[in-house]
UniProtKB/TrEMBL annotation:
GO biological process terms on file: cobalamin transport; cobalt ion transport
Transcobalamin-like C-terminal domain ranges (all copies): 324-400
GO CC, alphabetical: apical plasma membrane; endosome; extracellular space; microvillus
UniProt name for this protein: Cobalamin binding intrinsic factor
Family to which the UniProt record says this protein belongs: Belongs to the eukaryotic cobalamin transport proteins family.
GO molecular-function term, one example from the UniProt record: cobalamin binding
Intrachain S-S bonds: 20-250, 146-187
Signal peptide bounds: 1-17
Pfam families associated with the record: Cobalamin_bind, DUF4430
Locations listed in the record: Secreted
Encoding gene, per UniProt annotation: CBLIF
Length: 402
């Protein structure tokens, strides 16, 4: 369930009709946090994956951070599983496929690295009774694997459920861990057919885990402590079907978070990165469905050169045309932008349109002159009506003789 659905539930679940979202009068606090995190990322040579992921979820994608993030992947072998999971999620939030990351040392599959690390966690659990790192990291691993639709997610989730069963009485899950478990299992649950044994086990665990998170809800609205509240909000917003309506006083939680934010509670970037997604109505699960920006246009550099008959000229322009356009479209775009210089005329032939004149200079059979089209220095083997330039291609129209 999305956070907006929670907003609706909260509206009907509380006595006041106030919506459970950041009130517009306090929106500036959220914008301020976002700006603060953005500035932090700009200054870091190694940006924190959780911070860039939070910013991407909030819609402020800083594409320069991608490169720096990718550079850091070379250290993947020495990272803990949870750190690798954060890289998987943050790359995905940039719409970079974590299964095929172009690094300086070749292409890297970060998802299969995570699968290996997760299997080590599980093996360690069966050997010693605890995961290699923490339950929190194991849950984060499962979340990232699930977001990437790795078949290993389900297996690891089964182990996590086992751990939780053995753990309940000892209360060995703090709010952060419980929230991460809820996010991970909720993701696995979403991709599952109803009624299976595994689905039943996940449902039962999510009931237990959400109850535990809600037990930590304080009168003030804080869940656990102020720093665990962000993740708890994310968890509770995707698991509403597993706890009673109205059990989470989400308006109170948001009000208190904003009050603490005003007092400067989230100046630490990691803390800020955990609270930001819930304040913009997003959770880590949304990383899977972020609308990846992709430019529908390609860039074409276009030069017209005449060194044959005076007055000589040599003009260049850069135009954008929709992907898949033929060269003629780029010529038209250039003419549209600067008709004085890039005007041209075509004649239709049985091979399609042929450019006979550019900038008032006509090809002539008497002089054996024509407009030759080249890609860089290589003559094109197709006409302007069928040749499709690629992104950043340099097309040259050169007045030539034959
Ligand atoms: C793509 O090109 C069209 C027309 O040239 C323009 O309207 C549109 O804004 C461009 N889109 C982007 C994302 O640059
Ligand atoms: C045309 O102009 C560009 C830069 O303005 C220059 O690099 C190029 O050599 C010129 N071409 C010719 C053939 O003069
Ligand atoms: C170039 O050709 C066009 C179209 O055939 C014609 O209208 C124009 O007068 C010609 N210009 C010159 C300078 O010959």
């Amino acid at each position: 369930m999305s956070l907006s659905a929670v907003v609706l539930l909260c509206m009907f679940g509380t006595v006041t009709s106030e919506a459970c979202a950041v009130p517009s009068a306090q929106q500036w606090l959220v914008t301020g946090l976002q700006t603060q995190l953005e500035n932090g990322v700009k200054q870091q040579s190694s940006p924190s994956p959780s911070v860039v992921m939070a910013l991407n979820l909030a819609g402020g994608r800083d594409s320069t951070a991608t490169k720096r993030l990718i550079q850091d992947i070379k250290g993947i072998k020495d990272m803990t599983s949870g750190k690798v999971a954060l890289y998987v999620l943050s790359l995905q939030s940039f719409c970079v496929d974590p299964k095929d990351v172009p690094t300086a040392g070749g292409r890297v599959n970060v998802v299969s690295a995570l699968e290996e690390k997760t299997n080590e966690e599980i093996k360690h659990y069966y050997d010693t009774g605890t995961p290699k790192t923490t339950n929190y990291q194991l849950a984060l691993d499962i979340l990232a694997l699930c977001v990437e639709k790795s078949p290993d997610a389900k297996n690891a989730a089964a182990t996590l459920i086992k751990i939780i069963k053995g753990c309940q009485s000892k209360g060995c899950f703090d709010v952060d861990t419980a929230a991460m478990v809820a996010l991970a299992l909720s993701c696995v649950h979403d991709g599952m057919s109803k009624g299976s044994k595994m689905e039943g086990a996940i449902t039962e665990t999510l009931r237990v885990i959400t109850a535990q998170i809600l037990d930590s809800q304080q009168e003030s609205g804080i869940i656990g402590n102020i720093y665990s509240t962000g993740l708890a909000m994310q968890a509770l917003s995707v698991t509403t079907e597993f706890y009673p309506a109205g059990a989470w006083k989400c308006t109170k939680t948001i009000d208190e978070v904003l009050r603490k934010m005003y007092e400067g509670a989230f100046t630490n970037p990691e803390a800020g990165s955990q609270i930001l997604p819930s304040l913009v109505g997003k959770t880590y699960l949304d990383v899977a469905t972020l609308n990846c920006f992709s430019d529908p246009n390609i860039t074409v550099h276009y030069t017209v050169i005449n060194q044959l008959i005076g007055p000589y000229f040599n003009y260049s322009i850069t135009v954008k045309v929709p992907k898949g356009s033929v060269l003629l479209a780029a010529l038209e775009a250039a003419q549209h932008v600067n008709p004085t210089i890039f005007s041209f005329q075509t004649e239709s032939t049985s091979w399609g349109p042929m450019v006979i004149s550019i900038h008032g200079v006509n090809g002539s059979s008497d002089d054996k002159t024509y407009w030759q089209f080249l890609s860089g220095e290589k003559p094109l083997d197709q006409g302007v009506g069928s040749y499709k330039p690629t992104d950043n291609e340099h097309i040259v129209a050169k007045f030539s003789t034959y």
